Amino acid sequence: MCASASSASLIRREAGPNGVTGTAPRVRERERAMDDPHAAAALLTAFRAGDPRALARAISRCESGRGAGLIHALYPLTGRAVTVGLTGPPGVGKSTLSSALVAHVRKLGKTVGVISVDPSSPFSHGALLGDRIRLAEHFVDPDVFIRSMASRGHLGGLAGATADAVSLMDAFGKDVVLVETVGVGQSEIEIAEVADTTLVALQPGSGDSVQVLKAGVLEIADVFVVNKSDHPMALQLQREIRSMMEMLVYDAWVPELVSTQALQGKGIDKLWDAIVAHDAWLRESGAIRAKRRAAFAHRVRQLALGTLDARIESVVAELGDDLDPYAAAEIVLERFGVRDGVGALGNVRAPGAVRAHVKGL
Amino acid sequence: MRVIVAKAGLDGHDRGAKVIARALRDAGMEVIYTGLFQTPEQIVQTAIQEDADGIGLSILSGAHMTLFPLVVEQLKAQDAGDIVFFGGGTIPADDAAELKRLGVRAIFTPGAPLSEIIAFVERECGKRRELVG
User: Fold this and answer.
1) Based on the structure, what is the number of domains in chain B?
2) Does the beta-carbon distance from A56 to B51 stay under 8 Å?
3) Which of A179, A187, A302, B118 has its CA 20 to 30 A from that of B63?
4) CA nearest to A8 within chain B
5) Distance of alpha carbon A228 from alpha carbon B94, whole angstroms
6) Which part of chain A has CATH 3.40.50.300?
7) What is the pLDDT of residue A178?
């Protein structure tokens, strides 16, 4: 097998619908093992009985593309939890904020699930998952379940199975599910689909606050969190955010701005109040239906495309070099019964509806 | 493959643990690093929630004969004995032998080649992953 770290690239990796699953020869045996109906039924029973190990194993199954049976059975139990996404640039204090939020929510007597997403190495496919560290005070609290997920090559800021993990924690009975991931630029906005309420955390004095303000990540915020409120430039950042907001016309919910000092636990109660306010507004106005429908559609597309992608790859592998890409694509499409020819170019589409547009446009 | 790399007790020397964590990541594994000052209970809860295949515990403070057995005990108490528990640090050969008798699957002392550690983890944790599914 692997004799040294540098020969890691010699190990073949096989992709399931949600991404990289593991060394190729083992995947098939594993699939055989867990598609045993007894094992699957036992897992479901343990899950329903509230065994955290069953939740952990269920998440792993979804990560390796074998979650269909579980989600079939458990999806009807989802929809109750308050789901929160927390994103922002590296170093802003997301994990510290998460820990403080969890502590606050626990004081209110609610149970919590936390998912921390970190990128996988595009070369080794491994990952160093260290966000959990800042949540250490909650490790032995039986009502807090923390799971680290590696992106496994998935684009958009999350892991392919993050939505499944949220559903599982919801079905498991967690009152609050918090998803934490790095979000910068235009493309790491998937978190807005996986959670009902999206928090975008920013920090003062990062020098390029104007750059950050231009990023697409800001358009997904339901709540802006200005962390490190004791920083001398904190007030200025708040003003910059408010003046940016004044340039936009919001269709419905106007984002709240909360100032926090997560290490000192300041402003966390106001942050929770803002989350609750947004969640209540979503449910009372009925806006939650459209939001969840858009998220559902995106998730279905992802699952279908993931499966198709693997099939397409095997068809493409059989094609010769003498074809141009468009002709080759037409052949591939015909294999799947699509005869209209090559149309739109594929893309990672932005989630859901645009929430705000610039005044005057 | 998912592996916990942990530091327990009052030991603040984390360089070795971080070297191992990075090496396992470069070998394609998902490594959950617990940070310093973990209790056996915290380590085992982390391993359960993360559905870890293995736990690697690093102890350079001399407290290994107390802490390693406590983790073994906690794994048994939580019915998580399937998780491959191994470790390293400044551990004399006699102590290492005793720890293996108590259920620690391997002890890698300073100087152990990374390739050997990675091979062990891939083999043993791989078996656990296959078993559990």
Assistant:
1) 1
2) yes
3) B118
4) B27
5) 50
6) 77-285
7) 98
